[in-house]
Design goal:
Distance between the termini: 28 Å
CATH superfamily of the largest domain: NAD(P)-binding Rossmann-like Domain
Strand order of the largest sheet: 2-1-3-5-6-4
Bound molecules: NADP nicotinamide-adenine-dinucleotide phosphate
Helix content: 25-40%
């Protein structure tokens, strides 16, 4: 039997086990997906131990996405974003990927939203915003990064080719000309708030929210009320898992089955 898992702290409420187990079962792959809550002071040992034990693949979540960088041979997405969320233990050693970035692009493709030449506004400058900003840029979008702490928006924009950084006070003006507006802040997480002013939405844009609890956030409901297309945060979560599954197994992921498994646990 193959063994895969998620490593993080905490991981007890992770949705990765049902997401991946559904895929292994659907494809008839004899594999078990488990959770590993690692000690923060012993993460290096945990990664080496996983390799020594012959674990086949790991999803890496907070707070270890940066620690994992030093342990893997980084694939291109990792070099860009500077964080690892997927490790494939190959015969040549552990290879690191960032499927938060590549999976988000697949989520947009799945919704037939083209990003090439789009004006994309990313709100936030933390881990999720990094994945979105680098992903949108790679897909050919012009990226504006807006953050409450404006200096962090400038810092991130300096790393993403062609991007600009702004404070939250610029958001309304940027939204007026935007094709895509993405929330990568934690605003709206288990609360009925939005980082974007309700009256700034228009029907000629796509709203994406990284937050998936609740699925229909205030950010998305305001956008929908103005006639905008919406993509909820579960699509990002789904497709980072879809990409990881395909990297590990080389088998096409059963996207519909994984989507159903994920949404039944939300
Ligand atoms: P993070 O690194 O801690 O960054 C948090 C961001 O939110 C920062 O830009 C912060 O701004 C901003 N923020 C927090 N409170 C704010 C407020 N009251 N007003 C305005 N901005 C505020 O977090 P993260 O890892 O990027 O995660 C962000 C969200 O994305 C979380 O809800 C997380 O669950 C979600 N996420 C979803 C997925 C998915 O697969 N769907 C993947 C990753 C993350 P400052 O810099 O000013 O503090």
């Amino acid at each position: 039997m193959d063994v895969y898992g998620i490593i993080g702290n905490p991981v007890e409420h992770s949705l990765s086990p049902p997401l991946h187990q559904a895929a292994f079962d659907e494809r008839g792959i004899d594999a078990k997906f488990v959770t590993f809550e690692a000690d923060e002071d012993r993460i290096e040992e945990a990664f080496r131990g996983a390799e020594a034990l012959g674990i086949d693949g790991l999803t890496v979540t907070l707070p270890f996405k940066h620690d994992a960088y030093d342990f893997v041979d980084p694939e291109e997405s990792v070099e860009r974003v500077g964080a690892v969320n997927t490790i494939d233990f190959t015969d040549d050693g552990p290879v690191g990927y960032n499927t938060d970035m590549t999976g988000t692009l697949r989520a947009f493709e799945h919704h037939d939203v083209g990003l090439d030449g789009a004006d994309a506004v990313v709100v936030g400058a933390g881990g999720a915003a990094r994945a979105l900003a680098f992903g949108f840029e790679e897909a050919g979008a012009d990226v504006s990064i807006v953050n409450r702490t404006e200096s962090k928006a400038h810092d991130l924009a300096a790393e993403v080719p062609g991007a600009s950084g702004h404070g939250l006070d610029a958001l309304t003006d940027l939204m007026a000309g935007a094709d895509v507006v993405a929330n990568a802040t934690s605003v709206g997480l288990e609360s009925d708030e939005s980082v974007a002013p309700a009256d700034a939405w228009h029907d000629d844009c796509v709203a994406f929210d990284a937050v998936y609890k609740p699925l229909e956030t205030r950010f998305l409901s305001d956008a929908a009320a103005a006639g905008a297309q919406t993509i909820d945060g579960a699509w990002m979560l789904l497709f980072q898992g879809v990409d990881a599954f395909e990297i590990w197994t080389g088998v096409d992921a059963p996207v519909d089955v994984m989507n159903e498994a994920l949404r039944s646990h939300l």
